[in-house]
């Protein structure tokens, strides 16, 4: 088992979470850092330091990185990150040069979805939509047991669907994105606004954070709600309703069997998910005449991204590398295979020649 250990690194808008992960998805050791948001080189240094620390205690074979951003189809370059300084950042190769191990880079929500499908809440469902609620909203699709990345590797950016034309500005450059109404940033924005205004909820949140306005966040709102503060309950319910609106739209588009909701904001559990389920049912196209997907909380919590990234890196490392002769043979076979397949241009020409 020891020789199959891999490192998974989950890079979010505010935190870097990393761990050594075994074949069964168990995290053997974990570390955590603050995300340096202003410099790609600082993020690279943080990754290298984390890997060095973990390799000093474990023999690992590969590293998987789940990045909060748009990752290209080769799983090597972060094209854009709304919350970090990455712009066409060749992260995979930069990390590989620094650490000397096999490395893959994928979107952090893809990594979380893979972990929940393989080890967590969606093990028995091959049509999964995963939604991660953190600083923003990430998303991913597993269809027929395969991650669906889209033509350019950018599928699943659900957080940047526009739900309110000319709504709140978003870090992506547009306005009215879904994550501006149903994410951790929303809770922070509304909670700190209440605290600055001196409202009853705001005063309660400041009490919980010992007067530190910067510490007023989603965790504080959830704590207040669990303690019975009805204003906090209503704030979580409002975010939950917006979450349900987006889920109904995704159900119309993808018709999954299950929605798995993860990320830090999901710690509010049914305080958030019950209003989301209600809004989902009310907004579901064809409601009453179609099966209804489950909406469940992720089982792996904040570890999902690192578990999924580690497992994907291990799988990629196991994939046999095609030699040059293999590629030549595949290219030579392609016209013959096309001629045998009905409905292809090559097969139609073959039929005409036979006539």
Structure characteristics:
13 strands, alpha/beta, Nucleotidyltransferase, domain 5, five-stranded mixed beta sheet, globular, 355 residues
Task: Write structural notes for this entry.
The protein has helices at 40-55, 91-99, 108-119, 184-197, 200-208, 218-226, 230-254, 270-283, 304-318, 324-340, 345-354; strands at 6-11, 15-21, 27-34, 62-67, 70-71, 78-80, 87-89, 102-107, 127-133, 137-143, 146-147, 258-262, 294-297. The protein has 355 residues and is α/β, with parallel strands linked by helices. The protein has 2 domains: 2-113 and 305-318, ATPase, nucleotide binding domain (Nucleotidyltransferase, domain 5); 123-298, ATPase, nucleotide binding domain (Nucleotidyltransferase, domain 5, 2-Layer Sandwich), CATH 3.30.420.40. The strands form 3 sheets. The chain has a 5-stranded mixed β-sheet with strand order 3-2-1-4-8.
């Amino acid at each position: 088992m020891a020789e199959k250990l891999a490192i998974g690194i989950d890079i979010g808008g505010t935190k870097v979470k990393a761990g050594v992960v075994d074949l069964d998805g168990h995290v053997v050791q974990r570390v955590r850092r603050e995300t340096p948001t202003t410099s790609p080189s600082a993020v690279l240094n943080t990754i290298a330091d984390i890997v060095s620390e973990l390799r000093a205690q474990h023999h690992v074979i590969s590293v998987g990185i789940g990045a909060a951003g748009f990752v290209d189809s080769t799983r090597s370059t972060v094209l854009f990150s709304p919350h970090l300084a990455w712009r066409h950042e060749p992260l995979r190769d930069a990390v590989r040069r620094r650490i000397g191990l096999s490395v893959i880079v994928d979107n952090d929500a893809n990594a979380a979805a893979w972990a929940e499908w393989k080890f967590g809440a969606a093990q028995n469902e091959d049509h999964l939509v995963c939604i991660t609620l953190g600083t923003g909203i990430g998303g991913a699709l597993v269809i027929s047991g395969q991650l669906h990345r889209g033509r350019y590797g950018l599928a699943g950016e659900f957080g940047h669907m526009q739900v309110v034309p000319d709504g709140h500005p978003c870090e992506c450059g547009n306005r009215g994105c879904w994550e501006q109404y149903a994410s951790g940033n929303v809770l922070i924005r509304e909670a700190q606004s209440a605290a600055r205004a001196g409202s009853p909820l705001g005063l309660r949140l400041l009490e919980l954070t010992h007067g530190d306005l910067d510490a007023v966040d989603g965790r504080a709102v959830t704590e207040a709600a669990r303690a019975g503060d009805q204003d906090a309950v209503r704030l979580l319910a409002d975010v939950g309703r917006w979450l349900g609106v987006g889920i109904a739209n995704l159900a119309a588009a993808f018709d999954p069997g299950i929605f798995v909701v993860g990320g830090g904001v999901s710690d509010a559990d049914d305080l958030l998910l019950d209003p989301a389920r209600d809004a989902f049912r009310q907004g579901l196209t064809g409601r009453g005449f179609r099966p209804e997907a489950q909406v469940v909380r992720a089982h792996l919590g904040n570890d999902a991204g690192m578990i999924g990234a580690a497992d994907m890196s291990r799988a990629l490392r196991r994939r046999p590398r095609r030699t040059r002769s293999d590629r030549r043979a595949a290219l030579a076979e392609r016209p013959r295979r096309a001629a045998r397949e009905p409905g292809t241009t090559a097969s139609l020409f073959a039929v005409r020649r036979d006539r």
